[in-house]
Amino acid sequence: MRLLLDGDACPVKAEAISLAAKWDLSVIIVASYNHVSKSDYPAHVQTVYVERGADQADYKIVALVQAGDIVVTQDYGLATILLNKAIVLHHMGWRYRPEAMDQLLTQRYMGQVSRRKTGRYGGKGPKPFSRQDRERFSTCLEAIIRQEKGASL
């Protein structure tokens, strides 16, 4: 079991890396060259950079993922592709489920249609990521690791 992070927009890298160290898991952060990090990560963390371009990090994650891995992404399309092979989490602390994917993808599509119609691509954006959001993610990730590690013992 490894932990893969969709690193281009992952606000919970520190929490994921810390929990991975606690549970002796390796971490692979996949990001585009647009998001090169100067962070000095611990030895159990590997960073893989991919060319700039739409979905390049997603393609690399699909190529790297193995059965039993845990992936953190906010990309519904990537999550849908990975669900048959990996456990997929959103950074807000919930697990993607096959039965919810149609609704999530439909909501994403409807949002795209609405933005195209109105020409509104800006707006306030999401609320700032809070300490409670980080705690919710950490609790969810640790529960899944504990469950999966227990199942493999």
UniProtKB/TrEMBL annotation:
InterPro entries: UPF0178
Coiled coil: none
Domain of life: Bacteria
Cited HAMAP family: UPF0178
Record-stated family: Belongs to the UPF0178 family.
Protein name (database record): UPF0178 protein HXK00_06880
Organism of provenance: Abiotrophia defectiva
